[in-house]
Amino acid sequence: MKKILIATTNPGKVREYSEFLKELNLTFLSLKDVGITKDVEETGTTYKENAALKAVTYSKESGIPAISDDGGLEISALGGKPGLHSRRWVGGVGKDEDIIKKMIEVSKNLAENNRRATFKIIVAFALPDGKVWTKSGNVSGIIAKKPLLKLLKGYPYRSFLYLPRLKKYYHESELTEAEQKQYNHRYKALQKLLPVIHNVILSEAKESH
After folding, report:
1. pTM above 0.85, yes or no
2. Which of 70, 96, 98, 129 is catalytic?
């Protein structure tokens, strides 16, 4: 296996996955690279169901192993919302700017002692034959009263999650490489999946010889 499909249209995710998986020394392809334009309807009722659905569908469609994920921001004071509907919280696809506006209003109305929030994610790795593995990751902090003005394209919610222990926003422009590895929820999930990916690579390498 020399190629892995990063099954997302989010450029931020493609960039993050490519960085976090660079030790594999593989070619990373996006949906655009393999000519896939159709969206997979997220009909699952959990992050795990949606992540697996996307990874399996895109792997079968492309004929190469695929990685996909699903996740969201869960705000304690809102009973876990927006959660599964984080991207569609403001209707439709949910543009970054619209989510920022929504979160500014939400932040204003949160009580001082009830601002806790958690990013949760499930990352799925699938093969064209339908086999799929999933792992989870999360990071918790508080919703800042004011967002970090530098918007990270594709990740509007990160402008609002503040990590009190670090005294920094959960934003790649704020965190060092070491802090990214310690706190990034996608990285945490991927680390759990790496042994599986390595095993698949090794088994295919043996079969080809």
Report:
1. yes
2. 70
